[in-house]
Amino acid sequence: MTIPAPRTALPPAVRPGPRPRHRRRPARAAWPIAAFLLGYPVWWALGLGGLSVVVLAVPMAVVLLRRRPIRAPKGFGLWALLLAGYLVSALALAETPDGTYGELTAGRVVGYLMRLAVYVSLLIMVLYLGNLTHDELPQRTLVRWLGVLFLTAVAGGLLGVLAPGFAFTSPLETALPSSIAGNPFVANLIHPTAAQMQHVLGHAEPRPEAPFEWANAWGSDVSVLVIWFVVGWWTYGGPYRRVAAVLALAAAAVPVVYSLNRGLWIGLGISAAYLVIRGARPLLAAAVAAVAAAAFLLSPLSTIVAQRLDNPHSNGIRAFTVAATVRVAATSPVIGYGNTRNAYGSHRTVTTGRSPWCVECGHPPLGSDGQLWLLLISQGVAGALLYVAFFAGAVRRYWADRTPIGKAGTLVMILVLLYMFVYDGLISALTLYLISFALLWRNAAGTSDLREAR
C-alpha cells in the first residue's frame, strides 16, 4: 500500500496573488512641473499666474545641475540664439524710432527684464522636462496634468461669463511699488480678473480671461490645452474619464463662444480637420465633428458667433498696428528695439496717441497683436526668423511620430505658427507651446531608448 505524500503549502513567495499594478508615479524631482500645472489657480490668486514659471525655474535648474551632463533636443540651439539675440537687443532700448513716442523709463526696462526672465525660464523648463526619465515623470501623467489645467481654464471661462466683474488685488500687486504695479503690461499679469470688458460687438461685452493674462491668452491657451485634454482623458482614459471628458467639453463650449475669439475658433477648426486627416479613426472623428457642429448650430450660441463675424471690430486696429510695427522694425532689422513702442496716431487719427485726457485714443503698443510682430520690433527680422525656424523645424522633425502624443504635439507646433500672427505668446501661451515641444522630444527619446534596448 502506497501512502501518498502529504500536501505541503506553497511558501509565501510563490503563492498566487493579485496581479501587480504597473502604474508609475512621478518622482520627487518632477514636483516643479506639477506645482505649475496643478497649482496654477493658486499662482493666479497670488498675482504670479504665468510668471510662476520664473519662480519654478529655480528648482528646475537645481534638478538639472544635479544630473549633468545635460541633454538638449535637436534644434534647441535656435532657441538659445533667440535668447542671445534678445540680450543684444537691449542696446537699443533707449532709442525712439521715427513715428513713435516715449522715453526710456522704468516701465520699459521692467518689461524687457520680465520677458528676458521668461525666455531664460522656458529654456530651463524644456531642458528640465527632457532630462527627467519616463519613470520620474511618465508621459501620460504629464499629459493628464495638462488636462487638469484645461479644466481650470474652463472653470475660469465660466466665471468670466457668469461673473465678469470678479476681480481682486493680489498679494504681489500689494507688495510691488505703484510705479511698477501701475505699468499696463505688469498690471495685466498681476491683477486677477475674470474677464475683460471690450466693445467687440459695438457695446460692452465680457470676454473670459481667468486664470490667464488677458482674453486672447485664454483663447490661445484653451485651444492648446484641449488637445492634450482629449489625448489624456479620452485617448488614454478609461470609461469614467471619458464621460468626464464629454461633460467638460460640452461645458467648455459656452466660454469658448462668449470669448468672441476668432483666432480660437479658427484654431479649433484646424484641430478638427487635423483629427479627421491624421486621426486613428477618421470616419468616427468626422461623424463626431458633424454631430457637434449640428448641435452648435441649433443652439443659441450660434447667434453670438454670427454677431461676432458681422462685427470685425479689431480689424482696423490690427491693420494699423501691424503696418506701423513693420515700418518701425525695418529701421532696425538686425537687433530690433528690445521692447515694444507706442506709435503716434491710431487707425482713426494721425495726430496723437493715448493720453490722460483721452484714454480711448491711440491703440495697443506696437508688437502686441501677435508674437511675430513682437519679435520683429523687439529683436528684428533675425529674431522672427529664429522663432519660425524653431517651431517649423519641430513640425518637420516630429511629423513621422504617429503616436497620439506625437500627433497632438505636432498639431500644437502647427498652431504656434498660425497664432504668431494674431496672439502674443508671452507668457502662459509660450509656456504651453514649449511644454508641448518637450513632450514631443521626450516621446522621440523614449522610442529611441526602446529600440536600443531591443
UniProtKB/TrEMBL annotation:
The chain crosses the membrane at residues 42-64, 76-94, 109-130, 142-168, 217-236, 243-260, 280-305, 317-338, 372-395, 416-441. Keywords: Membrane, Transmembrane, Transmembrane helix. Residues 1-24 are annotated as: Disordered. The keyword Transcription does not apply. InterPro entries: WaaL-like. The keyword Transmembrane applies. This is O-antigen ligase like membrane protein.
